[in-house]
Design a protein that fits this description.
Membrane topology: Lipid-anchor
Oligomer: single chain
Subcellular location: Cell outer membrane
GO biological process, one term: protein insertion into membrane
Helix content: 25-40%
Largest sheet: 8 strands, antiparallel
Protein name: Outer membrane protein assembly factor BamC
Structural class: alpha+beta
Number of domains: 2
CATH topology of the largest domain: Alpha-D-Glucose-1,6-Bisphosphate, Chain A, domain 4
Subunit structure: Part of the Bam complex.
Length: 334
């Protein structure tokens, strides 16, 4: 008897935990069966007794109630102001977040494209607009074969930047349909919140790794990067290379003015050293003008590369590049 009872309980639980998308979108109550007519009541037999006449004031009307439109019970999604000093809004088509301009190096289309690549979602960037390829919505409460294309726009102003996510197209079983305003809000705000959260978490994790990094010597050498520029190849990951370069660049005259660790960039101010200082590092003094320069680290796995450019984004080349990178290599190996 106990086994039969337990079997009935288990069966009830399994039927209640349905994964059907329809049941996740609709309430499972009697309202959904409201096309059933109101009950009719028949008078009682009086048995020879005169009963009081029924008062029609509170009599239920004899009508047939038609079932209304299906109600979507899923709670609404809204864009969240996760970035410090940011503002969010859904304008009926797009979910957007506006943030201070100094955050644009972290929250931009290139970073968004990197996140999509990690999800195996291809995308293209045309100017300030990114468009994704067709991909599954990834929501358990969607019907099968529901696909979507997003459009992400980056807007830059004098003191602020913004990311705006909109639905370009949706289709189900290969048939394109127009989502409702509520659906547009649900999909765009969820995707925007995911972008911002993932970028913020990655940046915080990188900052934490930098703060606890143990930096030791490593080998390096001259290479040519994917863009055909002379670069310094380093046998070290991003964290180790970033920290070590921060300590050795000033030793060859490059003072660090500002930096964005999330993108591996630093702004440098170069002041020429004495000729003897360069000779101590085993190289001749490079022909570099005093002024502003920039450095960029690119990392792939446990290796990374460094490129130094001038104010016009022109990379160091020739004997100047060779002297600077060889001097850095000597300091990095200590």
């Amino acid at each position: 008897m106990k086994k039969i009872f337990l079997g009935l309980v288990a069966s009830g639980l399994l039927s209640a935990c349905s994964t059907d998308p329809e049941t996740l979108q609709q309430a499972n109550d009697t309202y959904q069966k409201s096309e059933i007519s109101l009950p009719n009541f028949t008078p009682l037999a009086n048995g020879g007794v005169n009963l009081p006449t029924q008062d029609a004031t509170y009599e239920l009307p004899k009508i047939n109630i038609q079932k209304g439109a299906t109600v979507d019970i899923r709670p609404p999604s809204t864009p969240l102001a996760i970035i410090k000093n940011s503002l969010t809004q859904f304008d009926g088509e797009r979910s957007l977040i506006v943030y201070p301009d100094d955050q644009a190096s972290l929250y931009n289309l290139q970073q968004v494209q990197r996140l999509l690549k990690e999800e195996n979602i291809d995308s293209t960037i045309n100017g300030e607009i990114l468009t994704t390829d067709w991909h599954n919505t990834g929501r358990s409460d969607d019907k099968a074969n529901t696909e979507i294309q997003y459009q992400v726009e980056q807007v830059s102003a004098r003191d602020a930047g913004a990311l705006a996510v909109s639905v370009k197209q949706m289709r189900r079983d290969g048939i394109i349909f127009t989502p409702s305003v509520a659906e547009k809000q649900r999909y765009t705000s969820t995707r925007l919140n995911r972008f911002v959260t993932d970028l913020t978490n990655a940046y915080n994790a990188q900052q934490q790794a930098l703060s606890y990094a143990v930096v030791g010597p490593f080998q390096s050498g001259l290479i040519t990067d994917g863009n055909g520029r002379t670069a310094l190849g380093m046998d070290a990951g991003f964290v180790q290379a970033w920290e070590k370069l921060g300590s050795v660049l000033p030793k060859i005259g490059f003072e660090i003015k500002s930096e964005t660790a999330g993108r591996g960039q630093r702004e440098l101010k170069y002041s020429p050293l004495d000729k003897e200082d360069w000779l101590r590092l085993g190289v001749n003094e490079p022909e570099l003008e005093k002024g502003t320069y920039f450095m960029q680290i690119s990392a792939i796995g446990k290796q990374s590369s460094l490129v130094i450019t001038d104010e016009k984004n022109k990379a160091l080349n020739g004997e100047s590049a060779q002297a600077v990178y060889q001097a850095l290599g000597a300091l990095l190996g200590k």
